[in-house]
Inverse folding.
């Protein structure tokens, strides 16, 4: 990652705090994913009838988990299999089937908090205009009522604590975005009753949900990347910083677009091009230099007149996933994008080496501006690159299948956005991919 704002100044935070009172800010959290993979080692423990390194760690430090009291109240037995079954299965806490957002993550003196709760507390600190905090969770239909009930239980306490109101909305991935599954030989995958299997098309399908959110700034963050109160200061600081930076950048883009609507000059062309290249990471093809002044103006207007996002990125410490890259549009132009490993041809040694040597990683830490310079909302569906969808292998009822996934929400679904990368500290990235990640210092409330 060559460009962008490695050190976000305190000025961006001041800018955000000064302007937020007049902004509609929404925090969007994809929260439909089940926690099944989080407990992979525990499922293996009971299915194989023997312990493994992670299940041993889980059992030896059981009392440190936020859910331990509830678990041991249901299961006084000392038998490891019985303890794990009570945690995972429907007869107990049913954590093996619930989404991560509803699990007890962090212990507090007065109880515990789920990721859903932590996102509400966090949103009060930056996704608020000083009077109201707005959040939008995408959830599965199966668990929507439980999310809604939990929010209803929490709101009066939170509104009293922070002195603001909360507006919490929920939506589901649209069934129309589901894609057909096929067998490994590309024949249609059929259910036992003969019906064709349709599957959710990955988080890229949530572009439809994002497209319906009307706000000046939209923060996007994964459900499991939360920390307790004592560890949140850095997160709040950098959320405000990238929010303030986005406000200043979109204001500059607006200024250039308004000027391009007026009298065109070579000086304006040079100034606008320099801004696009130095601040937005855009590299024009050689063809651009051969265009007339009027044609250059139209080209630059097309480049600038797009949704804009800032993506926080962290130093690559070997986490699986994607990162920031320059990508070609096939016509000699290059722009910044977040690329997942599934998009890369790993059989191409050159592409594999470029991806493997990425200096930074995508923690899903975005703030988005989806209005144009005239105040109108963009149709976000028009700015995705459908060629970046990909095929994954899954299983259903023990049978292997191939599934088509739409371009990832922050990947190909935003391929034609203006993108800026900002390096943020590692301590703002604390995902919970396995149950024992909850034992890391970042998830201890001390």
């Amino acid at each position: 990652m060559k460009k962008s704002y490695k050190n976000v100044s305190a000025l961006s935070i001041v800018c955000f705090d000064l302007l937020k009172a007049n902004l509609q800010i929404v925090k969007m959290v994809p929260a439909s994913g089940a926690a099944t993979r989080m407990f992979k080692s525990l499922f293996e423990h009971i299915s194989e009838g023997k312990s493994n390194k992670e299940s041993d760690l889980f059992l030896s430090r059981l009392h440190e988990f936020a859910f331990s009291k509830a678990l041991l109240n249901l299961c006084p037995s000392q038998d490891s299999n019985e303890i794990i079954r009570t945690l995972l299965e429907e007869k107990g806490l049913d954590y093996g089937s619930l989404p991560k957002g509803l699990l007890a993550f962090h212990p507090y003196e007065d109880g515990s908090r789920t990721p859903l709760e932590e996102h509400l507390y966090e949103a009060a600190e930056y996704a608020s205009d000083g009077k109201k905090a707005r959040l939008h969770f995408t959830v599965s239909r199966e668990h929507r009522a439980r999310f809604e009930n939990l929010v209803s239980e929490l709101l009066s306490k939170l509104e009293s604590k922070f002195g603001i109101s909360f507006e919490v909305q929920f939506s589901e991935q649209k069934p129309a975005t589901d894609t057909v599954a096929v067998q490994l030989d590309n024949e249609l995958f059929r259910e036992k009753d003969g019906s064709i299997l349709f599957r959710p098309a990955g988080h890229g399908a949530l572009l439809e949900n994002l497209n319906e959110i009307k706000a000046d700034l939209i923060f996007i963050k994964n459900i499991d990347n939360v920390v307790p109160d004592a560890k949140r200061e850095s997160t709040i600081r950098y959320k405000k910083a990238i929010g303030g930076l986005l406000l200043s950048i979109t204001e500059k883009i607006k200024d250039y677009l308004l000027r391009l609507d007026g009298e065109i000059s070579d000086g304006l062309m040079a100034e606008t091009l320099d801004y696009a290249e130095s601040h937005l990471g855009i590299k024009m093809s050689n063809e651009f230099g051969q265009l007339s002044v009027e044609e250059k103006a139209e080209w630059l207007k097309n480049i600038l007149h797009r949704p804009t996002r800032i993506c926080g990125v962290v130093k690559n410490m070997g986490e699986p996933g994607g990162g920031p890259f320059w990508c070609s549009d096939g016509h000699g132009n290059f722009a910044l994008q977040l690329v997942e490993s599934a998009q890369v041809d790993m059989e191409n040694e050159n592409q594999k080496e470029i991806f493997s040597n990425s200096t930074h990683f995508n923690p899903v830490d975005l703030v988005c501006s989806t209005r144009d310079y005239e105040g109108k909302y963009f149709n976000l569906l028009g700015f995705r690159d459908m060629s970046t969808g990909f095929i994954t292998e899954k299983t259903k009822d023990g049978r292997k299948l191939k599934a088509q996934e739409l371009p990832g929400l922050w990947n190909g679904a935003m391929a034609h956005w203006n993108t800026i990368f900002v390096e943020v500290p590692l301590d703002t990235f604390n995902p919970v991919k396995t149950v024992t990640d909850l034992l890391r210092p970042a998830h201890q409330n001390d």
